[in-house]
Amino acid sequence: MSATTSSTTQTRMPRHLLSMADLDAGAIRTVLDTAAQMHDVQKREVKKIPTLRGRTIINLFFEDSTRTRSSFEIAGKWMSADTINITGKGSATSKGESLRDTVRTIDAMGVDAFVIRHGASGACHQVAGWVDAHVINAGDGTHEHPTQALLDAYTMERRLGSLEGRHVAIVGDLAHSRVVRSNLISLQRLGAHVTLVAPPTLMPSGIGAWAERDGFALSHDLDGVLQGREGKAVDALMMLRVQKERMSGGYFSTAREYTVGYGLTRPRLADLVERNPEIVICHPGPMNRGLEISADAADAAQSLVLDQVSAGVAVRMSVLYHLLAGEDTPTVGTTTEGSAA
Ligand code: CP
């Protein structure tokens, strides 16, 4: 590690990042602290450090993505790794090749890491058992999206300071959300209180027992939570996308009914900001403007949506660094030309 990271709590990193559960509180802190250093690279004229020179990273995306795929690619490139994008449509999987054969084929070429997005929950865990390379979960079905949770924590901390004792409300389509599962783990490990808010039809099955075991709150009353009637005032509000593509049945009668009950509408935003002008609003994206979040809320001064996107590159650089770089590799201490940065 570079001397520049000596202030962090260095915890042994896992070989793969498949779930937020792979990172204990110390490891999360280390990743977030390194991300802060990596964020500085974004401000440089020459966005290139030699940290992962000679490493090859495969971005293997079987589901669509704008933010995650491009930020992993940028992260790898800025750290001088060779990054290659493969999607389901352009690969031999469209000819019927299995996931196992696909990843073992690419692994045999000697690559160092797979960044995988797949529609099946648990796909990344399976791949980790089939390949020698490191595996990073970039979103698997409705299971987890750990780097999203890390960038969410990083972004909220930048605005709010420590999340210890802070109250984060996560609102929306929880049933189909991999983001909520990863965020629950990371936010609780960072000491935040979490309340999940959704209509009964969009609560994940078994959530009651899970909440009891892990000590987070559940509510169907968004206004009650936002007005502090159900406990501590909210410091951060995370709105989740209604995942229409994963919905086969009717989870709510009309879009209007959903928005009235659970959308961050203009009147709700006004009320919220009047109560607490320091509140922060997050959304992992992509947003359904006018459904779960109004345009006013998405673009409000309290909105961190673009900060989350910006943090995505830094956090993914940090994750790639901690999984792939050797112990003695400097983080951001040198440029590709070898001069001090
Ligand atoms: N938040 C997120 O995963 O966005 P993408 O689907 O664009 O990667």
Descriptive overview:
By secondary structure, the protein is of the alpha/beta class. It folds into two domains: 154 residues, Rossmann fold (3-Layer(aba) Sandwich), CATH 3.40.50.1370; 162 residues, Rossmann fold (3-Layer(aba) Sandwich). The chain is built from twelve helices and nine strands. The strands form two sheets. A five-stranded parallel sheet has the order 7-6-5-8-9. Helix 2 links the parallel strand 1 and strand 2. The chain starts with 24 loop residues before the first helix and ends in a 17-residue tail after the last helix. The N terminus and C terminus are likely disordered. The site of phosphoric acid mono(formamide)ester has 9 residues, from helix 2.
Draw up the topology in text:
Layout (H helix, E strand, L loop, with lengths): L24 H18 L13 E6 L5 H12 L3 E6 L11 H9 L5 E6 L4 H6 L5 E7 L5 H15 L6 E5 L6 H12 L3 E5 L9 H8 L2 E3 L2 H5 L9 E4 L15 H8 L3 H10 L4 E3 L12 H4 L6 H20 L17
Parallel strand pairs: 1-2, 1-3, 3-4, 5-6, 5-8, 6-7, 8-9
Helix pairs in contact: 1-5, 1-12, 2-12, 5-6, 5-12
Bound molecules: phosphoric acid mono(formamide)ester.
Strand content: 5-15%
CATH superfamily label of the largest domain: Aspartate/ornithine carbamoyltransferase
Total of helices: 12
- The unreliable regions are 1-8, 337-341
CATH class bucket of the largest domain: Alpha Beta
The coarse overall form would be globular
- How many strand units? 9
Roughly what is the average pLDDT, rounded to an integer?
92
Q: Write out the distinct hetero groups bound to the structure.
A: phosphoric acid mono(formamide)ester
Largest sheet: 5 strands, parallel
Integer-rounded radius of gyration: 20 Å
Terminus-to-terminus distance: 16 Å
CATH topology value of the largest domain: Rossmann fold
Just name the CATH architecture of the largest domain.
Answer: 3-Layer(aba) Sandwich
**What structural class do helix, strand and pairing data support?**
alpha/beta
**Approximate helicity band:** 25-40%
